[in-house]
Design a protein that fits this description.
Glutaredoxin, alpha+beta, about 375 residues, 5-stranded mixed sheet, Immunoglobulin-like, 4-stranded mixed sheet
Length: about 375
């Protein structure tokens, strides 16, 4: 009996000494129904393809490690099929179907459960928004229902914002909350962002996204027409610091753009023409790029023949100049007069030309 008791005691002691092992990485096993063999699926994190996997018998697999739960994207090569998901160090499963990949089911991620909860609430609003957007795109502006359709479309954005903000309020410790607050901070503005950020848990506040939001709250400005401009300086393509106040002329346009912004690049040729015609008369532009990749930025400047001063801090949407002016979409711009007063915003090259024809001809 003594030996039996001693044996049981040893077993219990061994069991008590064991520590629960933490996963050393993630294993994502995927099912891609109706996706052909040899199709390539990419794993994209932070806008970079970090891995790829070939489909075999409608299955694929990824293995790796992330420092913390991370927002990622699965993409089927050469298609528009994609799926946003939260990747974390655990055994995960994905079930998707060709043609409806973005609505695939993800299992094994606790953060994904929060994201799914939010997405379920947003689903009906997003379906209605997509339908109205398609209707508006195919509707002539002269149509009597055009204004009504745009109004209803705008309501879906307001409703979506309300749902997202309520989620943050009710789930302040969720990684999904800090993620969406960081995404929408420039859209929601300083007041709402500050209020919601005050509810966020301390661990999330100290994260990279939390620091980004703190920086936004610190720098955010939204000067209106009639108010004085906000000065700032950033490096040009040669690494030389250029300050807005040092390049100002009679009229100065602060042009926010990026190499990857299609509408910006489409506008550039006409903007170049206006600059060529009026630069000697007192018109200056300072281009502020929301790029991250320096070479892509330089290539775009060269290709579009942008001869005015160009600067960037290469922080993308976190560009400090853009934050100071409350930029939430590009192209965007600020037109300043020789007294430093903002006289227009979001002006097109056509409007600039008409305005300068009157202003300079009358001088």
């Amino acid at each position: 009996m003594k030996n039996t008791f001693l044996f049981l005691l040893i077993i219990l002691l061994i069991g008590s000494c064991k520590t629960e092992s933490k996963p050393n990485g993630f294993v994502l096993k995927g099912v891609a129904e109706n996706v052909a063999d040899e199709a390539v699926i990419y794993l994209n994190i932070n806008n970079k393809i970090v891995d790829s996997s070939k489909v075999v018998n409608q299955k694929f697999e990824f293995k790796g490690k992330v420092e913390q739960p991370t927002n990622a994207v699965l993409m089927i090569k050469n298609t528009n099929e994609f799926k946003f998901l939260w990747l974390e160090n655990s055994e995960m499963e994905f079930f998707g179907t060709k043609g409806n990949f973005k609505n695939g089911l993800v299992k094994g991620s606790l953060v994904q459960k929060d994201a799914d909860k939010l997405n379920t609430t947003l689903e009906s609003v997003e379906i209605r928004r997509d339908s109205l957007n398609l209707l508006a795109m195919n509707m002539d502006e002269a149509n009597e229902n055009y204004s009504y359709t745009l109004s209803e479309l705008n309501k879906t954005f307001v409703e979506s914002a309300s749902i997202n903000q309520k989620f943050v309020e009710e789930n302040p410790n969720s990684l999904v909350s800090i993620h969406i607050l960081n995404i929408f901070k420039t859209t929601w503005g300083k007041e709402i962002t500050t209020k919601l950020f005050g509810l966020i848990g301390e661990e999330n506040k100290l994260s990279q996204k939390g620091e980004s939001i703190s920086k936004f709250i610190e720098l955010y400005g939204n000067p209106q027409i009639g108010e004085h401009y906000i000065d700032f300086e950033q490096e040009d393509t040669n690494g030389e610091l250029i300050k807005v106040s040092n390049v100002m002329k009679t009229y100065t346009l602060i042009e926010f753009w990026a190499s990857w912004c299609g509408p910006c690049r489409e506008t550039n040729p006409e903007l170049v023409k206006v600059y060529t015609d009026y630069n000697d008369l007192g018109f200056e532009i300072i281009g502020v790029s929301l790029d991250i990749d320096k070479q892509q930025w330089i290539n775009a400047i060269t290709k579009d023949e942008l001869t005015w001063p160009n600067v960037s801090d290469l922080k993308g949407s976190e560009n400090e100049g853009a934050l100071r002016y409350g930029v939430n979409a590009i192209p965007d711009n600020i037109l300043i007069d020789n007294e430093g007063v903002i006289i227009a915003r979001r002006v097109t090259p056509q409007i600039l030309r008409r305005s300068f024809e009157k202003r300079f001809n009358n001088d």
